[in-house]
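Appendix B, Record 12. Input sequence as logged:
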Amino acid sequence: AFVVTSRARARDLRKPAVQLLGHGYGFSHAYIGDYRTATTTSAVRSGRDAFAMAGLTPADIDVAELYAPCTITEVLASEAVGWFERGQGAAAAAAGATALGGRIPINPSGGCLSRGHPPILTALYGLLELREQLLGVDERAMDGLRTSRLTVAASAGSERISRLLAVARSAGIA
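Logged structural output:
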């Protein structure tokens, strides 16, 4: 279950919490035929807004769950959000930069390619994975994680929603 509450209430919880630091929304096209380029997504705008709200940059993120229903999507998204230069995402992934323990682990859950992506639930799966990673309660959890990014898509890929999360104790809640 997901419980959304205030900071004040989170301090009294018996279980550890994560905090939403930033949120952004991006929209690129109304119809799939209007998509100008497949190499840039509305995740650029949603991420920019989320980072501005949180006062963070892509370099501050320790782990990410990005909407990637096919292999190339993760590569393009990793470039679009600023972790790799355009055209370098595939080489970075092949070199292990996006693997567990890499520079920026992306989709430690395996993402959509491993679990599928049922409508509505994909975003919840991503939130759950990042919560477990940040709190260290997942068997794949990496040590020392403090911040994360979740990006999900809707409407034939035209919309992207980005959320930045942090471990509550490092965000000043606990």
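The mean pLDDT is 81.
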